[in-house]
Design a protein that fits this description.
Two copies of one chain form a homodimer.
Chain A: H1 3-9, H2 16-26, H3 37-50, E1 61-68, H4 83-94, H5 98-106, E2 108-116, E3 127-129, H6 147-166, E4 171-177, H7 181-193, H8 197-200, H9 209-226, H10 233-240, H11 243-257, E5 262-264, H12 267-279, E6 287-289, H13 296-305, H14 321-339, H15 343-346
Parallel strand pairs in A: 1-2, 1-4, 2-3, 4-5, 5-6
Helix pairs in contact in A: 1-11, 2-3, 3-14, 5-14, 6-10, 6-11, 7-9, 7-12, 7-13, 11-12, 12-13
């Protein structure tokens, strides 16, 4: 049995009994019932994932930034040069990127994994080199990668999740870096949600009207060439996805298999979560949507997965930034359930 | 000159030059311009408030929970007994309330100030007893307090802000506790924004249709009795406000006078900010809206003050909970501006 099959087989349905106990406990805390809104649902879901109420506070946390390049970059879908992927990996390793600053703010560890960067990278102990291939092939020409490569990249993500959990991390956050990766994301989202390409394609990190129209047409050509089948998620991923999407799908599956909450970042993570959800529907119950990205495909993805984002700040950066910003909110949700007094214990009178 | 007049006189306009420097620096950081959305604006506003770019990370932070009772409780505007105000103050002092758990999560100090609780309170070194009177008078019968009492309560807030800043706190968060205080808030919001009472009155911590209709009618009666004048903010506050609203207005003015960011919680803080804004319009530029409360009057208030909330999680608790949850986001905004590398410093290529 492959690592992937083994991982899928070991993902258990979340614990509905623990969720029910958490829901009842929320109503006994010294606050009006329901007054913590969305945080109450998060605390209940954390109980379901961890099979205990109150759930442990999800800490320490680690964000895994999977970096890879995209052959479709050659089609002119972004004004950013491809070399920026490698340059930003160097920036992560130096601690100078937004993800690093946010991780310091919220007390999260940063892991940087090369799963498929095309350019030269600095030698660093902090960089995990697990390159499957130096960038994907242009999906308008052939499949972005072979099925074996897609599966190998998924397994990189599974392994990273497992290693982080073995090291004591109790909360996994998704991060990503890859110039042109919103193009592959839109292709995956159109495939798995059934939305039209134009409805799920955005302007990424900032493109003009002409590039935007080209981006849509490039995605349409790739989908026409491959006719990716959503019922064959690995095949679809190989045809039109990115190596970081594959690794992120594995990371989600790996976290779910270990019973650890996975906080999703934005549209790249969302596209990967669609793949993971087709491989193992129960995996979605271990996911928390960190934020709602400004990309239109992300809202479509969250709706499809029935996930409700915590932070909505018009972010469109990636790197794990939205997941990192939501981490204190997720931890707060668990802490409230664990630490707040009940009406009985605090001697507070309930409403008439 | 009174403490209030003195404080109003010492509130300086924020520094537009520092804001401009911050805006330019945001565009040099290694990320697509604008990709941090709302956080970029927060960092620019923090620079304006603190007159320097990058702004210091707003820490340590303290939440001041001003507690008071409301005579209008006698009109049956809430199903919660009035004694819950005092019981919740005891809960804060024991560390068992939601505000305490959230403060522990985000590393904020909790100050609890009795500015007008009606019931008996525990003796505790942690409680600041600055009671102006034991609850307001029922505003449907007479003014809620005298003008002198309103001004004295405002000065309690000014003094608390000053003491916290003197103790080294670089970020002030508003908190509140007072059964029936959404009623006084709606009366203040209707007065200062000009909205109809029904449009700005909500269900507070949870009331049925009959109580909701009564609440609206009670507020209408009070406004008809007093005809509060928004151009006489202290007079309006005395007529229909609460002692915690007065203290919070002073707290905002005190923070602004010291050049320290003030993170507002929900609808109670918003109503108090309307008073502060009439007394000193520049004070609003030192305010950050922590969250958007589920109360309809809060959205009207934020729109009126032109403040954009950071967190929108359908919270309707008060206590400072929304302000506390937003604190890491505010700190992250400052940290990004201070710590993220620029394109030049990191050797990252810019987009074509």
């Amino acid at each position: 049995m492959s690592t992937l099959e083994d991982t899928i087989g070991s993902i258990a349905a979340v614990d509905k009994t623990a969720a029910e106990v958490a829901r009842e406990r929320q109503d006994r805390l010294t606050k009006p019932a329901g007054s913590l809104g969305v945080l109450e649902e998060v605390s209940i879901r954390l109980s379901a994932m961890t099979r205990v109420c109150p759930p442990p506070i999800p800490e320490p946390a680690a964000v895994a930034i999977f970096a890879a390049d995209h052959g479709v970059h050659a089609q002119g879908v972004t004004p950013w040069p491809q070399e920026v992927t490698a340059q930003m990996v160097a920036n992560f390793l130096e601690g100078g990127a937004v993800a690093n600053a946010l991780a310091r703010q919220v007390g999260a560890e940063v892991s940087v994994i090369d799963v498929g960067v095309a350019g030269a990278l600095p030698v660093s102990d902090a960089l995990q080199v697990r390159k499957i291939r130096p960038g994907t092939v242009d999906m308008t020409v052939s499949t972005a990668m072979t099925r074996d490569e897609a599966e190998a990249a998924i397994e990189v993500g599974i392994e990273c999740a497992g290693e982080l959990v073995e090291s004591g991390f109790a909360c996994l956050l998704t991060g990503d870096m890859g110039i042109a990766n919103t193009t592959a994301s839109a292709a995956l989202i159109a495939t798995f949600t059934g939305h039209d390409v134009a409805d799920v394609t955005g302007r990424g990190t900032g493109i003009d009207d002409e590039t935007y129209e080209r981006k849509i047409s490039v995605i349409r050509r790739a989908l026409a060439l491959h006719s990716p089948d959503p019922n064959d998620p690995v095949g679809a991923l190989a045809a039109i996805g990115g190596l970081e999407h594959a690794a992120l799908a594995g990371f989600i599956l790996g976290g779910a298999a270990r019973g650890v909450p996975v906080i999703l970042d934005g549209v790249i993570a969302g596209a990967a979560a669609l793949v993971a959800a087709r491989l193992a529907p129960d995996a979605v119950d271990y996911c928390i949507a960190g934020h709602r990205s400004a990309e239109p495909g992300h809202s479509a993805t969250l709706a499809y997965l029935n996930l409700h984002p915590l932070v909505d700040l018009e972010l469109r950066l990636g790197e794990g930034s939205g997941a990192l910003l939501s981490l204190p909110l997720v931890q707060a949700a668990a802490r409230v359930l664990a630490e707040v007094a009940t009406f009985d214990s605090a001697g507070v009178t309930e409403k008439n």
